[in-house]
Amino acid sequence: MSIKKMILIFIPALLVVGFALFIQVLRYEPLFPKKNTSSSDGEKPPEFSIPFSITDPIIGQKRAGKTIVAFEDFGCHRCKQYDEILTQLVAKHPNAIKIIWKGLPVTRFPYPSELALKYGFCAHSQKKFTEFKNQAFILNDQLSDATLKKIAVDIALDSTDLEKCLAAPATENYIFQNKNLALQLNIQAVPTFFVDNKQVEEAETVEGWADILAIKSN
Question: What Pfam families does the record tag this protein with (predicted)?
Answer without folding.
Answer: Thioredoxin_4
